[in-house]
Amino acid sequence: MPAAGATADISGLAIDTDDISGLAIDTDDISGVYVLGAAGTDTITGTNGADTIIGGAGSDAITGGAGVDVMTGGSGNDVYTIAAGLSTDTSATAVTDVITDFASGDTFVLGVAGSSTNYAESETSVDSLTALLTAANTALNGTVLYYFGVTGGNGYLITDDDTGAGANNIIQLTGVITFADNGAAIAS
User: Reduced to 3 states, what is the DSSP secondary structure of residue 124?
Assistant: First the structure.
C-alpha cells in the first residue's frame, strides 16, 4: 500500500459511477478521463484534458473543462457548462468540444443568457467548417455573442465573449441541424 499522501498517475482512468457513491476526485492533476454517470441526476466535471463524459439517464449537469471533450448527456434535460477561456481554440479553426446528443430540453450555461439580440443562426448547411466560421466571424460583432450554423450534417454553436479577436468556443452538436429559438437554450 502506498504511503499516505502518495500520488499516482491515473491518466486514462475510466470511472463507472454505478459502482460507487459519494466519490470526490480532485481533477487538477489528471486528464483524459472517461466518466460514465449513473441512472439518476449526475453532476460531472471534466479535467484539464480531453475527456469523454457520459451522463446516463436523468437530468445531468456536465462541465467539460479544458481540452476537447466529448460529452453525452443521455436522456433527461441535461445542462452543459462550457466555461469561458477553458476550451478556447486560439486559432479559432477547430472544434473545442463535442456534444453527441443535444436535444430539446437540454441547455448550455455560457455566462450570458442567449436572446434575440445576442444570438444569430443560419440553418442552411454550408460546405465546410471554414465557411461556417467565416459566417460566424461576420455575425459575432460584439453585440452577437452566439452563432449557430450547420455543415456536414452537424450543428455548431460558436461563442465569442468579445474579449479578443475571434471565437472562444466551437461546439459541435452531433446530428443537430436546428437549434432553439433565438438562443433560448443558452442560460446565463
Answer: strand
